[in-house]
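Running this now, will post back.
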Amino acid sequence: MDDTGFGKSQAARTAINKNDKADLARDAVAIIRENNILYGCYDPGGINPIKKDLHAIHKIDFITYCLSDVQSQNFYLENPRTIEEVNNNFIAIHLNNFYYTGSFAKYFCSSNQYNWLLDVQRRYDRFLELTNNITTTQFVVVPWMATVEEKALLYTSF
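Update: finished.
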C-alpha cells in the first residue's frame, strides 16, 4: 500500500503561505546530531552546488510522520484528530514503512552502497541512535485529513 501523494507537502506549503524561507525541508532530510541537539538539511541523495541554501543546516524542532487514512482510524479510534506527540521508536518504525531514500543517491553510489542505504534494520537502528535521549526535538504524528485545507489548518493550529 502506498500512502504517498495525498497532499502532505501541499498542506505544508499552504500552512506557511508558500513562504519559501519557511519551507526548509520535507521528505528527504539528513539528520545530524551535535551533542543533544538534532540538525538537518534537505538531502535528496546529492548536494546541488548551485543551490547552497537548499541544503542549509537548521535545528530540527519536530520530526513528523503523517499517518494514512487507515493508520489514522486505528490510532485515533473515536477521538478527535489532532497532532499528537509520540516517541522516537514509533517514528522509527513508521519511517521504515514509507521512506524517502535520497533519490539521487543511486546515481552516485555503487549498487552495494545503495542497497546498504536501503537496509531497513540499518535505517531503524541509525534513527534510534541519532534520536535517543533527545529533548529539544518533538516527535509527532499528524492524522490523515480529507482535504489539504484541513491538514494545513491542523499544521497552523499546532
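Residues 1-5 have pLDDT under 50 and may be disordered. More later if anyone needs it.
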